[in-house]
Amino acid sequence: MEQAARPIAPSLLTLLPLYGGLAVLTGFLGNKQIDLGPFAMELGLFAYIGVVAISSSVAELHGQALANRLVFWGFIPVMASMALIAGALALPYSGRMTTERVAGFEVIFAQSPRIMLAGIAAYFVSVFLNVRVFSWLRGRGSGGGLMLRGAIASAVAQMVDGLIFVTIAFLGVFPILPILAGQLLAKLVLSFTAVPLLIRIGVDMGRRLDSGEAR
To answer: Of 189, 205, 192, which is closest to residue 150 (Cα–Cα)?
Structure first.
């Protein structure tokens, strides 16, 4: 007798594709840096805070074990995009493409695999750490409310992420100290402002979806 398939929670059907898309975008947005006074910051951070917020939202809604599975399998879209980029770079260019377009493609996509590799290394350490700290604070019962737990976990994880990511992605390409300083500053600010709000939105939306209120 065939077993009925277990239904997937609507919150997961919403959050999982978004998680995979943001994980891939982190690598592409990381090609651009902006100035923060004397510091610099790579823009992959804006997609990455979404990855952190979604992992915490899933941990809150469905538990640490499922959030860890999300983190583990979440690198597959990144690996798939790296393979597609490698294939695209290996194919010859059309003679109809201008020199400027070829050069632009090479600048962005030839660098992206290195940035994505840096992202994978930082990803496995920092997002697992985020889920672990977030869940640990929840289990202790003394870690404050949802948004405070999310802010603390994000701050710890993103400091580690910044050190790993910037070193692997930009060592020998840019002076890394200004980028590292800008990254850590931006990560701290966003961890205590944007990330808690995104977690609150993700959890509230997930609960509404799972309860059927959003139908």
So the answer is: 192
> 214 Cβ partners below 8 Å, 6+ apart?
10, 205, 208
d(CA 120, CA 126): 10
Amino acid identity for residue 172 in this structure:
G
Q: What is the dihedral of CA 138, 142, 145, 147, to 10 degrees?
A: -70
d(CA 75, CA 37) in angstroms, rounded, equals 33
Domain assignment present for residue 5? The answer is no
Q: Which helix (H) or strand (E) holds 171?
A: none
pLDDT tens readout for residues 37-46? 777 777 888 8
Cα 13 from Cα 28, distance rounded (Å): 24
103-112, 137-146, 186-195: range with lowest mean pLDDT: 137-146
Evaluate whether residue 1 is within a structural domain.
no
Read off the pTM.
0.85
Tell me whether residue 3 is in a domain: no
Cβ neighbourhood burial of 215 (10 Å; 0-12, 13-18, 19+): exposed
User: 170 versus 155: which is more confidently predicted?
Assistant: 155
